[in-house]
Amino acid sequence: MNQKNLKAVFANIDKNLAESFDKYIEDRGYTKYRALQTAIKIYMCLPNDVLSACMESNAKDFYRVLLSAIQSRELTRRIQTMTPDQQALMFDLVKEGTAKLKELDQ
Questions:
Q1: Staple 82 to which of 36, 54, 86, 102, CB 3.0 to 4.6 Å?
Q2: Domain locations in the chain as residue ranges
Q3: How far is Cα 26 from Cα 81, in angstroms, rounded to an integer?
Q4: pLDDT tens-digit profile of 66-104?
Q5: For residue 90, which of 74, 101, 104, 75 has the smallest C-alpha distance?
């Protein structure tokens, strides 16, 4: 990459997180600048609600939070493309499944 297009990024972050990051990229043979650049690109494309949830989570929960948000958005998108009859059928199936789960709890 052209040196004129580079800018140093500095911030004080949790020492344990920084050390874990260094070990993670070293173990995988990544360069720090490419890993950070990729992380920044991912950060910039995430919706605000996902970012907020991830900021409130620890690193181990981050993947779960992100996966849940992606699945939720995909489910919402799919429901929106269904016909009203298909949506009604799906909601009836969910209601029936929920009732059966409640029976198991009793």
A1: 86
A2: 1-45, 47-106
A3: 44
A4: 788 888 888 888 888 988 888 888 888 888 887 777 777
A5: 75
